[in-house]
């Protein structure tokens, strides 16, 4: 079952042309397939086997009897060809390389396709999702990214039910069929592409239209297709698309290459969105938004995802992947491009902080658990399990380090060479690096390659020594890369460390390593397991600002804990905004850990916690006060400073993990901060409330104000102060936008008993018919930090508004609970785990991909305290014993148990 990177072989047959004709029907769609197949003579000698293997999932697709022909000759089953569970095998194909025409017809039942891979229905409209291996659920084909073909697609369907017919490329012909109930459209995509980029949409949709003139003066028609009634909600996504097109021209010189670009929104979608050539298909939550129904974060997510999918046109489509082990070649790079785009469109420091938060809360734990894998994995059972934070987010960090290493100009040169050299080809991560190496001969990228092959988060520890007589500061650094599944020993990596030095007044000291180039922030290239760096002309009592801007995805710590004074100093004085935030994270992380380690598994109330542990230092509280009131700082930055390290991230540092202790310790700190800052929180809240009065505005200044105002309100409510809670309820009721309404709803349901219930009921009544808003209502309830949350979820999954077949519903309610609410999930009797295991089994029959994502909540088991650990292990074993698991869930369960 295991696929290995080492086993890659070039395809035996190539397909130059694909002609598909779809006769669309919900339960019996026909796909007439014509393939121009040619023996791949460059890869094989003539002596190789001449059997043609086409991938095809025969549970989904049936070959229509007697329809298979080669060059016009009808083949006989058993003699000329065989059909297995996963293949159509045609014997004795022409191995001369001249090419033959293979024709056949398959039938499929989209209405039964709950896995949402291949051709499926959503609200009676047809959609496809082919990445990674969905095309084999549509027709028989060599379904691998290094087989690239020109596609011509004909769609035939009911005029009434499917007035819109779309596929990749340009529509070259359309009309009414002889039976006038039907119409057809023919699409031609002039670019060769792998099957995973194929798409079709057919349905009753409306569209928004706009256009963009490219840098060479070509006019591109842009359309966004949505369900009736949703058009006004698509205007924001359209603006984002135009911004992204312009940005890619300016930053990378990449121009759009067809006459039309379409985005289609769909409610049933397992992932975020898909970059099918010229026909992007999106989860509707990343397209539809207006201020009444979408939060500021929703708007930001839309901007990022629209850009991400658009950027794939060059990084993914024009230059594509040789095989799925190279997934990060397109995803890491495209995430990086999207991050930089967002940074340019919004606030760079805040964007960086939120990306690092995500990396630390989701990727670091993955890299330290049983599913750990390198950015370029060596093996997998189910490729869908590898659309991970490691491939995406750590992959983006690797690109970021590369750019820092080469400098922006060198990086751009490398990218230009990459596009020029590999356009139209299916390539590897090594090809990407070789383009950069060739464009930058003065830099040696050999050691850097380890970022692609070694899994695990490097741990970097540091200590200093100061020689006052010479004003020299020595920085001793050590790196350790923890063992990960099937990788026990590691080589030292090239870790770029950006450092700055501040004198005791907070002024920058130029970083002078003796190379004649003293600068405010210097990049140290750490290459050995242990290395010492020397800084000259350092005044006494200077403070180092390490890893500025999070210059490498590592866990950094000082050997001898950094003094609280130094951390507070950095929080207040560092020139690097990221490091100001990070210093605050370290200060609060250390306090939370100290408290949690004192509590462990004792059950106690927050009052008892407060009386048993040392209060946070006044200096820390004052530092937060200063930041809250510092009007010279942007609102958004200030609000971010108040987001304490998440429970998941704190748990990373605790061995074994006591989830309740982490939760109580974190909440305790929040309440201490709230009570010390009470007056400032009120005054800030009131002031911002005033400033935001009147018409709702979406600009970034207003968004920042809302964020800070709502953070203040959350702190004010976290001790369940009745006055604060009634303000929250009032604020909830008069909110004219979803950002405020949802923030209040979260606060009320987390901290207010009856007010929470009241608000949830009102919210439901108001939004009962807005599908995307109901997801928010589910998620809020999934995130209630209470030991009763399980019961709430159990009721909600049975409610009429919840559809277990809809991935957004599942992620919001079941995912929110199992993956984002540790305090409610880790129940001492194991009932939370049992419930989730039940749901995984149910989901596995519906949508294995989604089931496996939920199952990842169990990968933490070995790190938990003994009682929880054994309870979770029991559920994993229960799943493991089933013989009907999908590959997706099996891989997660099996790896969790055997590592
Ligand atoms: N390539 C898509 C993206 O933009 C993700 C598709 C994932 N699909 C899947 N079945 N795993 O990131
Ligand atoms: Zn992507």
TrEMBL record:
Domain of life per record: Eukaryota
Domain Peptidase M1 membrane alanine aminopeptidase: 236-440
PANTHER family, alphabetized: PUROMYCIN-SENSITIVE AMINOPEPTIDASE
GO biological process terms, semicolon-separated: proteolysis
Keywords from the UniProt entry: Aminopeptidase, Hydrolase, Metal-binding, Metalloprotease, Protease, Zinc
InterPro entries: Aminopeptidase_N-like_N, Aminopeptidase_N-like_N_sf, PepN_Ig-like_sf, Peptidase_M1, Peptidase_M1_dom, Peptidase_M1_pepN, Peptidase_M1_pepN_C, Peptidase_M1_pepN_C_sf
GO molecular function list: aminopeptidase activity; metallopeptidase activity; zinc ion binding
Protein name as catalogued: Aminopeptidase N
Domain Peptidase M1 alanyl aminopeptidase C-terminal, chain residue ranges per copy: 565-897
Cofactor needs: Zn(2+)
Residues covered by the Peptidase M1 alanyl aminopeptidase Ig-like fold domain: 456-557
Family under the similarity heading: Belongs to the peptidase M1 family.
Domain Aminopeptidase N-like N-terminal as annotated: residue spans: 28-197
